[in-house]
Each structure stands twice: as C-alpha cells, then as structure tokens.
Batch of 2 targets.
Target 1
Amino acid sequence: MEGVVSLAHGDGGLATRELLREVFLKYLDDPALRRLEDSARVDFPGPCLVLTTDAFVVSPLFFPGGDIGCLSVYGTVNDLCCLGADPLFLTASFVLEEGLRLADLERIVASMAQATRRVGVRLVAGDTKVVPRGMADGLYVTTSGVGHIPPGTDLRPERISPGDRILVSGTIGDHGVAVLAARHRLLEGEATLASDCGPVHRLAGAARRFAPGLKVMRDPTRGGLATVLKELAEAGRCDLLVEEEALPTDPAAAAVAELLGLDLLYLASEGKLVAVAAPEAADAILQAWRQLPEGQRASCVGEVREGSGRVLLKTALGGTRELHLVTGEPLPRIC
Amino acid sequence: MEGVVSLAHGDGGLATRELLREVFLKYLDDPALRRLEDSARVDFPGPCLVLTTDAFVVSPLFFPGGDIGCLSVYGTVNDLCCLGADPLFLTASFVLEEGLRLADLERIVASMAQATRRVGVRLVAGDTKVVPRGMADGLYVTTSGVGHIPPGTDLRPERISPGDRILVSGTIGDHGVAVLAARHRLLEGEATLASDCGPVHRLAGAARRFAPGLKVMRDPTRGGLATVLKELAEAGRCDLLVEEEALPTDPAAAAVAELLGLDLLYLASEGKLVAVAAPEAADAILQAWRQLPEGQRASCVGEVREGSGRVLLKTALGGTRELHLVTGEPLPRIC
C-alpha cells in the first residue's frame, strides 16, 4: 500500500474509517471487530462480556477539568457503559518518556485511582515501558476494559426506527474546547471553561431501566456529536433530524469554539451520553437523567425519520444542513 | 515526588519495581494488581477470567524472526498462558506516528492477524490514535487479553516447595539478542540468528495436563530468565539453584551476546516457558515438551531448595554466583 500515515488518519471520522477498512479490517476481520464500535460484545459460556480498549495521547497532559489519568479511566468505562454493560475490570499500559517528571506521573496515577473509585471499577493489571527522550510526549496510556451485560440488554443501532427520539445528556463539545484552549493557552484563569471529563455510568444505568424502548447509546467523543449521529444513521438505515436550537451548549465553550473557528458539533465530549429511544421511553429517560447532577441539561434534540443514513440539522435560521463524519482539518491529540 | 523518569525505569527489573511500588501501587492497590504479575486472575460469577495488558515499543519494528505485530499478539497470549488460561479475546490500541509508511503498517497488521490465527484467539476491539511527527517512533501498540482458566488450575509461586525442579522450554535470550543485533546492524545477512518470537500456548497446554504437580509457569521476557527466577524465588520464599551448564543456549546468540558484552541470562525470550514442578510432573512435562517442535531443547536447569528468596547459579567452573533482578545498564525497547 502506498502513502504514509497523516494526522487526518486520527480524526475519528472519514479518514480514520478509511484507514481501518483498508488496512486493519483487510487482515483482522473478526465479526465483533468489523462492527467498528468502541466496544465488542463477545459470546462466552456464562456472562455476556464486553471488551474495549483506548489509547490516550491527549496534549496537554493536564487541562481544566481533568488530566490524561482520569480521562483514560472514564473514556474506557464510558465505552463499556454505552453497550449497557456494568464496568468490572480495567487494565492500563503506560508508555513513559525518559525525563517525565515523577511528580507529574504520580499526579496522573492518583487521578486514575480516584476515577476508578468513583466508578467502582477495579484496575487489575498493568504494564509500563520507557522510551528515550523525544520518542513520546510525556506519556501515553492505553486502558482496556471488561464489562458484563445483564441478560435482556440489546442495544444496537439496527434497532433504531422512525419516530424514535434523540437525546443528549448535557452540553456538547466541552472537552474538545477545554483541551484546545489549554493547548493554545487561551483564557488562562477563566474558571468557567472546563472539560466535562467524567463517568456516564449513572446516566447509562438510569437509561437502561427503560429497555426495550432504549435502542442505542453512544458517547460523543472524538469527532463529536455529528460524527456519532452519522454513524448511528448509517448503521440504523434511517435519517436523523436534529434541531440546532435544542442542542445544549455552554456559553463559554460556544464563545471559545467560535474564536477558534470550530463547530461544537464536531468537538469531543468526555462525560456525555447520546441515546436513541422510543418516545415513551425517551420521556422517562430524560426525567431520570435530569435528576442526576450530570444530567441537569439533558435534552431531546431531534428524532428519527425514514431515510438513507443522513443527519439533517435544522438550523436556528430555519435552513437545513447535512452533517457528515468529521473530515478535513484534524484536531489531533484531543483524547 | 522528586526526580524524572529514566530509561532504567523501563528495565523490567529493580528500577521498574521501585517505580511500580512508589508511584503506581501507592494509589492503585487492587489485590490482583498488587501481585505485580503479568496477568491478573479475577473472580467473577461464572468462569475464572484472566486479564493482561502489554505495551509494545520495540525498536526496530521489524527484526529477524518477527515484528512488533506478531510480538504484540504472542506477548499478550503468552502472559495469559502462564497463568494456565486459554486465551480467548484480544484488543489492540495503536499510537501511530504521522509519516509512518502505510505499507509498514499493513505488514504489521497482517503479521498480527496471522499470529491470532496461529493461536486461535480473536482480536475483537481496537483503537487508533495518530500523533504528530516526532511524538512517537513509527508506532506503539498495546494489546490486552482475556483468557479463561479451567476449573482446578492453581498456578502460583507460593506453591513452589523444596525439591521441585526448574524447567525451561528451550534456548534463552534469543529475542533480546536478535533485536539488539538488528538495532546495531550487526551480522546482517546472518540467517542463523533470529528472535524466538512465538506462542507458548501448546507448551503451556502440555504442562497443564500435569497439574497439580505443576506449580507455576512464567515467560522469561524483559529482564530475562534471571529476573523471572528471582521473582519466583522471592514470592515462593525458597532458593532456586540453577546449573549454568544445563541452560540451553543458541551458539550464534551466545556469540553475539558476548560481542555486545551482555549476559543471556538477562536477555528476553519471547516464545519460551519457565516452569517449576514436583519431580515426577517435571519429568512428564519435559517429555511432553520435547515432542513439540518448539520444545525440542527443553531442559531441567535446576531445583528448588529451602532458603530466603535467592537464585544461585552454579557456574561451569564450579563456582556459585547469585543472580538478581536485572539492574544497571538498561536495554530499552526490547519489546
């Protein structure tokens, strides 16, 4: 195969998908892997297990609202929760750069530990490697997770059908904006802007109570809400109609996104859920979410229509704009 | 905490252990993690599961006998096998450097796929991140694995007792020598020197048939046979007596190790097993191993004595030398 890896291959959108299909799935074509979801459901005598893995390369290592340590725990836990699983066990592998301050490493590990306690998940195995100066950027960490799906849980985009509602659990794009602002040293001292880095296990647990009306859940991380919705629309073979005015956003995040020329719809959240549910279940889920501190701004942002896999945004001005997978200018190292 | 990460922290020996105890276990103290083994056994209603994770940062990416792709599969599979588990599922996370040749990536992924087929393990979930040029060295990959321990399997260093035999399944240090030789472009075109990078699942399966006489298994990777034996001696609260003349070595590997001023006892193997077993089981295991192509040079290299956690090497010249955890000059990026 010709060519080299480009930053665009890490955008979490179209280029990433091409790389996965043309290189990875060409050789590794397990049915669970081929779904290209964040987690894999695996059949095994006894419990139904879910496995997931994520590499974290966020820059800077510390940002308002979090750090690479808690991010790596919540990111992996949240992927398990999206399949309706109870997170059970994590493993963590570290690539440390020679010269990393031990005080920084300690702060990151302490943050991971606090995150595991908050979620009630056990970190049971790990690995550390050290590479010479200039061969990494401080540290990278990969967390992998194992969860258990209770019997009767069946969350899949294929279950989406016309009339279903689209819910988001809170403001979108906060993590992406906070990391980019920290990287470019924008708004230093501006306390109102922070990553939403956190666990969705309580939100997911609350939504799960309303299965089978609950069809599917996702966390809108790299690529943002737009990318997640496009993936759901394609897999569900429906159109998703989203009302721009219904999207919960943080005013400070919106202002910084505008300053940076970026669209909140394509920026990562790290503590939010997107759910698609039948109307009655949707109302019940919204009510349940709003009773949680992390779900205060939960909203219904649109609905599912018959269609061919498009995401259509009804703008505040009354027009309609089609949303696609994130593409073009990449935002590397957001998670 | 003062100080910075040094290359020695990645040696897999004393400095690594200090880093783990002083930074990681200070905050992350799950009983499964605290054992500091390569894999974690976890209790869960239903099957007894084993989890493991490993980051691979080997340089160069391609070396005689293997590459980072198959190494990352076998390394993780072998850790599962050492606990007596059947490997079931793998996940893989990639950190790709901008500019990596797609042809190289493809070759590595194809090698991973071939390795999974050879072992019969499923790679079910993955993740890719891209970092800008100069922020990695080609690519790093973390593989995590889940295995299942059949009922009645109880392999733990605490079960070692005086009189037990120490077995190795073949020549030691081949991987470390091959990677270092490739890195320094020694002996180019010398076809006899190659990494032993491969799976130990058949060796482990053969040994497992002789439980309960089989006490414990390990793969002597980073830090080499000496480091693994020292860890077993300490955990088993016995002395291990090893006969230098009984150690199987490859003459080409021994010659290159001498050229580099290195000791094969501290160099990594990536397709070998160390087992400790009661005398009768030990004889049966040796016989079974020698019937496998990868076990032709299996040998009994020593025995367990009452003691305090020392490893004593009876040298060819009749002297006795104590072996310790690997320390001092680090050999970074060997796996």
Note: Chain B is about 30% helix and 25% strand.
Target 2
Amino acid sequence: MYADLTVDVAINLQPGQRLLIIGPLMNGGVALEAATMVRRIAASAYRAGAELVEAIWGDEALQLVRFHHARKETLGEFSAWLPRALEDHAKAGHAVLSVYANDPDLLQHEPPDLVGALQQATSRAVVPFREHISRNATNWGVVAAASEAWAAKVFPEVPRDQQLSRLWDTIATLCRLDRPDPIAAWKAHLAALAARSEYVNRKRYTALRFAGPGTDLTVGLPAGHIWVSGASVTQSGIRFVANLPTEEVFTIADRNRVEGTVRATKPLSYGGTLIDDFSLRFEGGRVVDFKAARGEAVLRQLVETDAAAGRLGEVALVPHSSPIAQSGLLFYSTLFDENAASHVALGSAYKFTLTGADAMSDAEFEQAGGNRSAIHVDFMIGSGEVDVDGVLDAGLQEPLMRGGEWAREVTSCERS
Amino acid sequence: MYADLTVDVAINLQPGQRLLIIGPLMNGGVALEAATMVRRIAASAYRAGAELVEAIWGDEALQLVRFHHARKETLGEFSAWLPRALEDHAKAGHAVLSVYANDPDLLQHEPPDLVGALQQATSRAVVPFREHISRNATNWGVVAAASEAWAAKVFPEVPRDQQLSRLWDTIATLCRLDRPDPIAAWKAHLAALAARSEYVNRKRYTALRFAGPGTDLTVGLPAGHIWVSGASVTQSGIRFVANLPTEEVFTIADRNRVEGTVRATKPLSYGGTLIDDFSLRFEGGRVVDFKAARGEAVLRQLVETDAAAGRLGEVALVPHSSPIAQSGLLFYSTLFDENAASHVALGSAYKFTLTGADAMSDAEFEQAGGNRSAIHVDFMIGSGEVDVDGVLDAGLQEPLMRGGEWAREVTSCERS
C-alpha cells in the first residue's frame, strides 16, 4: 500500500517515464526492509507503466570509512558522475524519488569543519539538479523507510528489538496507511491543505510575524508570492505530491526583508550531525548572529556555504495539531519534523512559489526577492507557544495562528 | 587481507586516483558480508591515497521485479546514466573494480528471448566503457564476494547454514589468502605465469589446435599476437592484475581463422541463466552451427548479439592442475571457471593482445584479425582430456598441452 501510495499519489508516475530511486543509505548493517520497500515501489512503478526503474543505493558506512581513512584535504571532493546522472535524468522529464532512512547521528563524532566541508561540497555539486527540482521540471518526491539507527534515535526508550517495527508503524500511521482507504484519506487531506493555501493566497500578506519564547521575527513575503501545499504540478502538467507525509502550506520568503530573532523549536539534523538549541538574528534579510548549544560549528559552515546561505528562501505554516506534532515524537528528519511545526528554510527559494519566476533570469528572480543558494535547509520555529500574525498591505496585522493553531477555520468550499 | 590484496596487488590504486566499485548485486536478502568487503576495500583504497571511493550497488532483486512487472517491450531499455558514468570515470584515468557475487540462476525461469534481449541491451550500452577497458586505459579489476544464492549453487550438498562460509573459505584459498604471506605468494605466482606467457610468445605460433572429446578446433593466431598473463600495465604505466584469482595465459584469436567443432567442458553462466552441454561449429572464423542441451535460446541470442558475436576474440590456456580445476568445483562464474580450464571468448578481442593495435583504426584492427563486438563471453573448452598443439610458421605442429597439462615445464629463469 505504501508503495502504491508513493507511486500513485506522491510521484504519480506516468506510463513511459523512468524512475530513479535514491535508495536508503545503509549504516552498520544493511537496511533490508528499506530495500524491500524500494523493490515494492519498483514493482508498483512498473505496473503504472514505468519504462525503467533504477536505484542508486547510498551507503552511510562508506561515508564513515571515508572520514576515518581518507586524507582530510580530499573531503571536499564529490562524485563526478552522480550530479550529472541526476541532472540528465530530471532534464529528460523522468521521475526521481528519494527514500529517506538516514542515521541522524552518523557523523556526530567527526570534526565539524570536515562534516561542514563535505556538506558544502555535496550541496554545490547538486545545484544544477536542484534547479530543475526547484522549477518542478519533473515529478519528484521524498518518502521514508525505517532503519535501525534512525529508529534507535526516535525511540531510545523502546527495547532495541522493537524499535524498527515501532518506527515502521509510526511512519504508516503518519502516512495515513492505517485508514480504511488511505488514498481517499490523502485526497481529502490534500483538499484541506489546498483550501488553506487558497485562503492565505487571497490575503496577499506582505509579511508574517512570528512571536514566541525567544522569537520575534518578521519574514517579508515578495509581491507575487504563491502559497503552495501538498500537491504540485510539473511544467508538463503532472500533478504530484513531493513529500509523504505533508502537513504544511509554504511560500517564498523575501531574501532582503527578514528582521529579528528566531529560536528553533526542534533540533536540526544536518548531514549526519545535530544542531540543537539554536537561534539566529536577521538584519536586512541576512543572518548577522547565531548561537547553538550543540553543533554551532556546523551551523556556521551551513550559513557560510555561499553568500545566500544566510538568507531565507521559504516560510511554511503547520498547525500544532498536525498529527506529527501530536505524536510528540522528534524524528531528527526534516521530512517529518518540518511537518510538525511552522518553519523557515535557509538558502534557495523554490521558483514555483513566485508568480512568473519561470520566465525570470536569475538576476530578475533575486531582484523580485527570490534567494538563490546551493543549500535549502529547513528548521523549525513553530510550537504550541508561537503566534503568527499576517501583515496586510496597509501595515495592519491580523492573527493568523494563535498558540500554534490556525486562528480561523477554513473549509474547501469557503469563499471570502 | 583480501581487501589489501585487491587494492595493492589487483587494482594497484595510485594516490589521487578515484575508485569506483561496482558493488555486489543483492538477491532475496542483502549480501551483508559482501557489503562489508566493499567497505574494507574502500578503507584500504583510502589508505593507499584514493581521492574518493564510490560504490554503485546493483540489486538482482530489482532485475527480477522488472521481469515480473515491466511491459515486455521495455526490457531492451538500459540505464541512460550508468554507461556514461562508467565511461567518464575510466576516461579520467580512475580505477574501476567489480565485485562479483551474482546468483547464476537468477533468471532461469524467465523467457530466454527476454533474458537475451536484456543482455544484448546491456552489452551494447557499455561498449564505450569496454573500449577503454580493452585498451587498458585505466587500472581495473574483478574480485569475488560470496553471496547466499551463489554459495547454494556451488555447494548444493552442504547444509544451508554453512554454504556461505564455505564459499568464503574457498574464495580465500583460491586467492592464496591462506598462505603465510599472500602478497609474496601472488608475486611468485605472477612471475610463473609471466614465464609461461614469455615462453609461448617466443614460439610465434600461427594457430592452436584443440583435440578432445567432441572437440577438434583450430584457432588461428594473428601475426603480432601477444600472450598476456596475470599482470597488465595501463597506458599510463600502472601495473595491475585484472582478475583475482588468475591462472591463465591468453591472447587474441584471429577473427577469420577458426575452424572445426568445439564442445564446452563446463556450463556457461550468462546473464542469470545457464547454458549447458553445448558445442559450436566454426567455419572461416564464424559460428555456423551450435546446439545446447540447456539454454540454447539464450546461446542463440548471445551469438546473434551483433555481426561479430559469433567470432572469437580470445583464446586462453590453463593447465588442468590449476588450483581451481583441482578443487573439482563448478563456480558458475567466469571469474573462477575460466581459471580452471583453457577457454575461448566469443566477441571482442582485447587490443592489448595485438602489437600496435593502439595506433590502429577499428578497420585496421579487424583487418589484422581483431574482432570487435558488444560482447566478450568466455566459455571453457579445456579439461584433463584435452590436448593442445601449437602450429608453427612452417605448418609443423608441436605438443603444447597433453591431458590438460603443459607438455613442457618452464621457469622464470629459462631462456630458450
């Protein structure tokens, strides 16, 4: 069912398309069940008419081997063929699926500057591929598979031999696979998200203001920003859902109009290390100060990846009543954690979140407020204690979220 | 030790080179121990100064999924990015290692014409990469890792839970890892093979004649043919050993001068199916007739892959006293079985087995007797019952092998 949901609802694979699966990284042992899931997805994709399904299997253990045995100067080197393979595949209009099963603590004992260097190299190498994704040039998606290391991190108090199945069960629940008709449940959920994004789109806010413990942040929204949720549409007209699960509505942040201080409400898992208990201060859109109780060196590398890595590309709203937030779990994975809380992303903006961006040059996109960077890293800033106001054109503010919940209910049929 | 032997003796990885490992295909379960071996090889390569080690992990189970769920018309499709990735890597002078752990029976229940079509597509797609390998453009190699399906095939009579370790032990023995100093043992063995290839090189035979049960075959050797064994040297001067284990001396066959009938002495494992109890008849270098008790349809696809697939590119001599022959085992893997018996290869000739071939155009290479095809498939024709004669310039024949053994001993210091 999960495989069919992935192929039919998430990727919405079209007959004759090829599917490239970026397979689950394997650490220590091998993620056998994740491999099984990849094979099920492949079967489902072939049934949907895929021309060819391929998997590129990562191996986290090889990354550790590299840290332990490679010369330090070489850690900035990246694959020569992989970025091109990804780009060519997307360019040709074929589908791409990432299966997430990473160990959030993989590189926790490695020197932060080297971890950061490796992440920077990775981010830079895949810029052309990200560009295609950012334009929804093709249907793409991210889903999760449980792995032992990840399960141990999410359920440290559960007996070791039950962690993996507990995580699988949790993923299933949060992906609504426990509903009598998961596909119908997803259609209803996507419709509700669409109604919410229509609502905020009609508001034409010029900015959002976040207020909560340690947070007083104003995030400008460019003229022509588009709120997006759940389903997206490729340039060729294929409707797809890039993330399973998804609970957010999101849009572009103005690269120059972000002011104030924000405190993260959840730790950020970044490239195999954790950044925790951190806050950032923005002036004129740019991070001018930051601190972190854990992982500050990696955070520094992150915001210094390139000139635009210290600016925001996205702002997203998620109610505290989202099933993921209500699970009370911390997943150390953006795919889940970003759907448990409102968040912002450092780095690149998605072009599909700005009207007319497709026809803009890179310079015009930046002029319009769009950020361009080698990175796009979400971190969570919402919680049950955070309020959000929408700033209207005239400078008036109105309540948008209170105590982490939408201040006003909307339904699919509402018309303002 | 196996990892170090692979990196130091086989690949002979140079500081600053990248290494691309074509990882063991995983069927049913996942080849955990093979994955461990790949990681050990990576560690050894980094210690030897590798700039980056990457693995492309195949997945036999995905192949089965394809056969069971893909539309039949699409089975001729091949990866768009993989052939280019391999070619670019080799072109850039980086090292390539294949780790063999395949299930010889993977596709035994699939329709032979579809298996053949897939193999043809695969062979054709990697022609440019093979071209680089054929010229020893870079250091490359093939080693083995045990996997459950393969072990079950080699040791059907051994209890199931001991098959895997038995195969690992056998691989270790045949790779001389049980010697007190395996690296010294390999140096001595390579020297002995070199002495043998020098001996046959000095003979300047114009043809070899194989005679045994069901076999009466003359294989022409082009003027300027070069007998090669064990160690090779890249164009840039790196000495490497392409196969571990290796027991053969081999050279180019004349694409136009092969006459008579040959009976295979071992089954041929080809693309996940077995061709067994088969013989071929050659006229003017070309296969004009063939039959097989098992897998005849796949054999037909094989020799019809392209216009040159029914001609020979290589002939190799292996004494019946080779440790692999003496093990009495059938490995269903060319890496081992070709080192247990004299053999010939259908398809492409290695350019490094003909003097001056590097400077020749493709047409000139063919003119000189060199075969060019998308395939290169070895099959075994030697045994304890097969004699080999060398045909001298004047048409005289002399005994080269008798009852599968060298008719004359040579040593490293012998001078004729």
Note: The domain at 2-145 of chain B is CATH 3.40.1830.10 (Thermophilic metalloprotease-like).
